């Protein structure tokens, strides 16, 4: 077990060195993610301002909670863009082009290498910006933070980061079964765009079933904020952990079965 951990940490270190070397050659690759995601970040803040110019609360949350929500969702997205998005997003291309053969021939998990081979340091400033928004939300609410609350919030951000990752892998694992990913990518974009604007507590009925269970984007930033402001009960916590556990199993099965279904482009 210890040897495996050391091996994978060594792989991550080497992949990071290779990626950083690429940035020194193509500097635009470093700044492009920051410019693109930074634009999305500010558009989200403008949309937030437009919504709250007509209402004081959304689902019982005021401006302070919503600033925390926007900052948390932006933080999740920034971590996603920094660590694994560009690697996971390349899976359909690797499948169509036959480059997946290379990953299957290496003595390391194909998904592990795909996840970490395109780390994007250019998105790190977005993490800092998101943390600033979160701090501003805490200031607006006049919260007295404790170390326990910060650790608990960090735990839920980590858990929801895993869920975010799993959703990306699940959708892109479909490329191992079908030829076109266009509709699924449109579905993903639409869900993320909606849930970046509305917290999960604003969904009811069928919408809550969709965004809390089937496509659980609605809980990703909602649960960490609920824990930070003290609105999370034991039932909600158990549900959140359960959803992540279920989607971890689904991700593992879909990926494993998809690799068995995969046919090399050269065959």
Quick description:
The chain contains 13 helices and no strands. The protein is mostly helical.
Structural features, described:
Helices cover 75% and strands 0% of the residues. The chain is mainly alpha-helical and 267 residues long. Helix 3 runs antiparallel to helix 8 (124-141) and helix 9 (147-173) runs antiparallel to helix 12 (222-229).
From the helix content, strand content and strand pairing, which structural class follows?
Answer: mainly alpha
β-strand amount: under 5%
Termini separation:
36 Å
Instruction: Provide the helix percentage.
Output: over 70%
Biggest β-sheet description:
none
Helix and strand layout, with pairings?
Layout: H1 2-25, H2 28-52, H3 63-83, H4 85-88, H5 91-97, H6 100-104, H7 110-116, H8 124-141, H9 147-173, H10 182-197, H11 205-214, H12 222-229, H13 234-261
């Amino acid at each position: 077990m210890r040897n495996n951990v050391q091996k994978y940490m060594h792989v991550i270190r080497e992949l990071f060195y290779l990626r950083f070397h690429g940035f020194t050659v193509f500097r635009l690759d470093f700044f492009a993610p920051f410019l693109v995601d930074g634009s999305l970040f500010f558009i989200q803040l403008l949309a937030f301002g437009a919504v709250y110019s007509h209402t004081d609360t959304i689902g019982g949350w005021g401006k302070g909670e919503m600033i925390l929500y926007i900052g948390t969702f932006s933080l999740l997205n920034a971590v996603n863009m920094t660590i694994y998005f560009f690697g996971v997003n390349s899976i359909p291309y690797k499948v169509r082009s036959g480059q997946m053969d290379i990953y299957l021939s290496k003595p390391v998990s194909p998904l592990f290498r795909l996840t970490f081979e395109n780390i994007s340091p250019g998105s790190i400033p977005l993490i800092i910006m998101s943390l600033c928004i979160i701090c501003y939300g805490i200031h607006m609410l006049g919260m007295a933070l404790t170390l326990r609350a910060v650790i608990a919030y960090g735990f839920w951000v980590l858990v929801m980061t895993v869920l975010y990752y799993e959703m990306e892998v699940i959708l892109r694992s479909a490329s191992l079964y079908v030829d076109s990913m266009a509709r699924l990518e449109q579905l993903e974009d639409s869900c993320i765009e909606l849930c970046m604007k509305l917290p999960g507590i604003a969904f009811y009925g069928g919408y809550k079933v969709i965004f809390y269970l089937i496509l659980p984007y609605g809980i990703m930033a909602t649960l960490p904020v609920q824990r930070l402001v003290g609105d999370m009960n034991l039932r909600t916590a158990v549900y959140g952990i359960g959803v992540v556990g279920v989607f971890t199993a689904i991700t593992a099965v879909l990926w494993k079965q998809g690799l068995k279904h995969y046919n090399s482009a050269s065959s």
